[in-house]
Write a sequence for this structure.
């Protein structure tokens, strides 16, 4: 089970930290992604972290977002800085092939 939290309504330039708690399995065995679904668009991956801690980011968030993981807490994080209006979306976590049922996500709204 995946449970995302931390979303909020913020102004342009603000920061947020999202969390994703994984229950029922040990996250240590999985590469993990943060995805988002912007209004009217398909869900897309914006950040990824492999089991060895290697990270990757989409061009749209590179330099502003930081993905991390705490395997001891079975929790995935996304530090979001310098937020823009185009970051407005519902954010989800899952594996690269979305092997877990999707959680409800957490809404991030950035107001200019």
């Amino acid at each position: 089970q995946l449970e995302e939290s931390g979303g909020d309504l913020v102004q342009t330039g603000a920061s947020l930290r999202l969390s994703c708690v994984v229950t029922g399995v040990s996250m240590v065995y999985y590469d993990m992604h943060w995805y988002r679904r912007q209004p009217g668009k398909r869900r897309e991956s914006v950040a990824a972290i492999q089991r060895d801690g290697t990270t990757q980011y989409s061009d749209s968030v590179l330099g502003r977002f930081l993905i991390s993981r705490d395997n001891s807490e079975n929790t995935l994080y996304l530090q979001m800085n310098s937020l823009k209006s185009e970051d407005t979306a519902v954010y989800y976590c899952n594996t690269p092939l979305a092997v877990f049922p999707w959680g409800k996500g957490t809404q991030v709204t950035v107001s200019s």
Remarks:
- The chain has a mean pLDDT of 97.
- The CA atoms of residues 92 and 106 lie 7 Å apart.
- The first strand starts at residue 2 and ends at 5.
- The beta strands are 2-5, 9-11, 16-22, 32-37, 44-49, 55-57, 65-70, 75-80, 89-94, 106-111.
